[in-house]
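Students often ask why we bother encoding 3D structure as a string. The short answer is that it lets us treat folding as translation between two languages. Here is a chain of 225 residues written in the first language.
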Amino acid sequence: MTRRILALIVGLALYGAGDALAIRAGLGVDPWTAFAQGLSLHTGIGVGWITNFVGLLVLLLWIPLRQRPGMGTVANILLLGTVMQATLAIVPPVEGIVVQFALLIGGTLLVALATGIYIGAGFGPGPRDGLMTGMNTRLGWPIWVCRAIVELTVLAIGWLLGGTVGIGTVIFALAIGPLVHLSMARFARVRHDGSAEASIAQSPIEGDSTAQTCPRQDSNLQPSD
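And here it is in the second language, the structure alphabet:
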């Protein structure tokens, strides 16, 4: 249990840091982060704090979907945006296409690595992933359809609000699924007896977020997040 809790905390922290690097790259971010960015621009509240707040609001949508949050759900809301905000305070904006792409790639790899770590802990999906899996359960729609509807909607709203949407958004969408798949295969759920059990989630989104194949809360849904 101690190892699993540590994996959950480390995974979510790395996820928040990876998202922050993608933001600093300035080339485009994933749908949920673009949404948070847009809200941040109009409220003056840090994008990390907005990410936490949005996670809490999304959790309320679980009620009609009859989803039950777990430790991982609560930790996601508390840690992901907080670490994102802290990282943004440390890493300044950058200039130059080479440096920007370096941060984008580094951030994407970090998010994929983090996803495999915290999903492997086995403490349940994050609020955004749970929303999509809940729609799948209650409405009977395929995960990829639920994910597409949710993520395209928040991406469009985020773009209209001024969130960063660009080549980075496309790269993240195409790369995160395969990368998370590899990460999840590497970081299998660690049992109390120390043995590892592979737990590769169904695809669609969580990817929970995208035309990418991400595992639930994994890469098939987003992260983020």
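Translate back mentally: The chain has one domain: 2-221. Keep this in mind for the problem set.
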